[in-house]
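ESCALATION

Customer reports they have been waiting on this structure for their group meeting. Please prioritize. Original submission:
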Amino acid sequence: MSAVLPLNSYGPLLAAVMKGLTAAGHTIDLIDLHAGGSNPVMTAADLAAWRQKKVLDPLAQDYQRRLIAADHIIFIFPIWWECMPAITKGFLDKVIVKGIIYDEPKPGRLIVHHLPKLKRVSLLTVMSTPGIFYKLFFGKCHV
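Update from on-call: job pushed to the front of the queue and completed.
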Protein backbone atom coordinates (compact mmCIF):
# COMPACT_ATOMS: atom_id res chain seq x y z
CA MET A 1 0.00 0.00 0.00
CA SER A 2 1.39 3.40 -0.91
CA ALA A 3 0.25 6.05 1.53
CA VAL A 4 1.70 9.36 0.40
CA LEU A 5 -0.32 12.13 2.06
CA PRO A 6 0.19 13.64 5.50
CA LEU A 7 -1.78 11.57 7.99
CA ASN A 8 -4.40 14.27 8.46
CA SER A 9 -5.16 14.16 4.70
CA TYR A 10 -5.45 10.43 4.05
CA GLY A 11 -5.95 9.23 7.60
CA PRO A 12 -9.69 8.48 7.39
CA LEU A 13 -9.35 6.65 4.05
CA LEU A 14 -6.37 4.60 5.21
CA ALA A 15 -8.04 3.91 8.59
CA ALA A 16 -11.19 2.66 6.85
CA VAL A 17 -9.19 0.39 4.54
CA MET A 18 -7.11 -1.00 7.40
CA LYS A 19 -10.19 -1.49 9.60
CA GLY A 20 -11.98 -3.41 6.85
CA LEU A 21 -8.96 -5.58 6.07
CA THR A 22 -8.31 -6.30 9.74
CA ALA A 23 -11.98 -7.16 10.34
CA ALA A 24 -11.78 -9.61 7.43
CA GLY A 25 -8.76 -11.30 9.03
CA HIS A 26 -6.08 -10.00 6.66
CA THR A 27 -2.51 -9.25 7.67
CA ILE A 28 -1.41 -5.75 6.64
CA ASP A 29 2.10 -4.80 5.54
CA LEU A 30 1.88 -1.02 5.10
CA ILE A 31 4.46 0.62 2.86
CA ASP A 32 4.45 4.34 3.67
CA LEU A 33 6.84 5.84 1.13
CA HIS A 34 7.39 9.05 3.09
CA ALA A 35 7.92 7.46 6.49
CA GLY A 36 10.15 4.80 4.94
CA GLY A 37 12.44 7.39 3.37
CA SER A 38 11.79 6.32 -0.23
CA ASN A 39 13.79 8.29 -2.78
CA PRO A 40 11.93 8.57 -6.09
CA VAL A 41 15.00 9.71 -8.04
CA MET A 42 16.33 7.22 -10.58
CA THR A 43 20.09 7.84 -10.63
CA ALA A 44 22.33 7.01 -13.60
CA ALA A 45 23.49 3.91 -11.70
CA ASP A 46 19.86 2.92 -10.95
CA LEU A 47 18.96 3.31 -14.62
CA ALA A 48 21.95 1.23 -15.76
CA ALA A 49 20.96 -1.52 -13.31
CA TRP A 50 17.30 -1.27 -14.40
CA ARG A 51 18.36 -1.90 -18.00
CA GLN A 52 20.05 -5.09 -16.79
CA LYS A 53 16.92 -6.07 -14.82
CA LYS A 54 18.62 -5.38 -11.49
CA VAL A 55 17.90 -3.07 -8.57
CA LEU A 56 20.59 -1.26 -6.55
CA ASP A 57 18.44 0.54 -3.98
CA PRO A 58 18.13 -1.68 -0.86
CA LEU A 59 14.78 -0.10 0.01
CA ALA A 60 13.42 -0.89 -3.47
CA GLN A 61 14.67 -4.48 -3.05
CA ASP A 62 12.82 -4.69 0.28
CA TYR A 63 9.65 -3.37 -1.34
CA GLN A 64 10.00 -5.99 -4.07
CA ARG A 65 10.26 -8.78 -1.50
CA ARG A 66 7.16 -7.47 0.23
CA LEU A 67 5.17 -7.23 -3.01
CA ILE A 68 6.19 -10.78 -3.96
CA ALA A 69 4.79 -11.97 -0.61
CA ALA A 70 1.49 -10.06 -1.01
CA ASP A 71 -1.82 -11.52 -2.13
CA HIS A 72 -3.52 -8.12 -2.44
CA ILE A 73 -1.79 -4.83 -3.22
CA ILE A 74 -3.60 -1.58 -2.51
CA PHE A 75 -2.21 1.72 -3.78
CA ILE A 76 -3.45 4.90 -2.08
CA PHE A 77 -2.22 8.22 -3.41
CA PRO A 78 -3.53 11.64 -4.45
CA ILE A 79 -3.87 12.99 -7.95
CA TRP A 80 -1.88 16.23 -8.16
CA TRP A 81 -1.99 18.28 -11.34
CA GLU A 82 -3.66 15.30 -13.05
CA CYS A 83 -0.76 12.96 -12.16
CA MET A 84 0.44 10.76 -9.37
CA PRO A 85 3.05 12.29 -7.02
CA ALA A 86 6.73 11.87 -7.95
CA ILE A 87 7.30 9.59 -4.95
CA THR A 88 4.64 7.18 -6.24
CA LYS A 89 6.02 7.32 -9.80
CA GLY A 90 9.51 6.70 -8.40
CA PHE A 91 8.20 3.68 -6.49
CA LEU A 92 6.75 2.23 -9.68
CA ASP A 93 9.92 2.94 -11.68
CA LYS A 94 12.33 1.56 -9.09
CA VAL A 95 10.29 -1.37 -7.73
CA ILE A 96 8.10 -2.70 -10.56
CA VAL A 97 11.09 -3.84 -12.61
CA LYS A 98 10.93 -5.97 -15.75
CA GLY A 99 12.64 -9.30 -15.17
CA ILE A 100 11.99 -9.18 -11.42
CA ILE A 101 8.34 -8.24 -10.85
CA TYR A 102 7.10 -8.86 -14.39
CA ASP A 103 8.14 -10.00 -17.86
CA GLU A 104 6.91 -9.37 -21.37
CA PRO A 105 7.22 -12.78 -23.05
CA LYS A 106 6.44 -11.37 -26.51
CA PRO A 107 6.91 -7.67 -27.31
CA GLY A 108 3.57 -5.90 -27.52
CA ARG A 109 1.73 -8.75 -25.81
CA LEU A 110 0.37 -9.11 -22.29
CA ILE A 111 2.85 -9.00 -19.47
CA VAL A 112 3.27 -11.81 -16.96
CA HIS A 113 3.81 -10.93 -13.32
CA HIS A 114 6.13 -12.74 -10.91
CA LEU A 115 3.94 -12.27 -7.85
CA PRO A 116 2.96 -15.86 -7.07
CA LYS A 117 0.46 -15.06 -4.31
CA LEU A 118 -1.17 -12.05 -5.95
CA LYS A 119 -4.94 -12.27 -6.39
CA ARG A 120 -5.93 -8.61 -6.58
CA VAL A 121 -4.63 -5.06 -7.01
CA SER A 122 -6.72 -2.08 -5.88
CA LEU A 123 -6.18 1.61 -6.51
CA LEU A 124 -7.67 4.38 -4.35
CA THR A 125 -6.99 7.97 -5.25
CA VAL A 126 -8.07 11.30 -3.88
CA MET A 127 -8.09 14.68 -5.58
CA SER A 128 -9.49 18.14 -5.11
CA THR A 129 -10.10 19.26 -8.69
CA PRO A 130 -13.71 20.43 -9.00
CA GLY A 131 -15.86 18.27 -11.27
CA ILE A 132 -16.79 21.28 -13.41
CA PHE A 133 -13.18 21.51 -14.64
CA TYR A 134 -13.29 17.91 -15.81
CA LYS A 135 -16.53 18.56 -17.68
CA LEU A 136 -15.05 21.69 -19.31
CA PHE A 137 -11.76 20.07 -20.33
CA PHE A 138 -12.76 16.44 -20.93
CA GLY A 139 -16.44 16.64 -21.88
CA LYS A 140 -18.88 14.07 -20.61
CA CYS A 141 -17.34 12.19 -17.76
CA HIS A 142 -18.65 10.88 -14.48
CA VAL A 143 -17.08 12.86 -11.66
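Sent to customer with the following note: The chain has a mean pLDDT of 86.
Escalation resolved.
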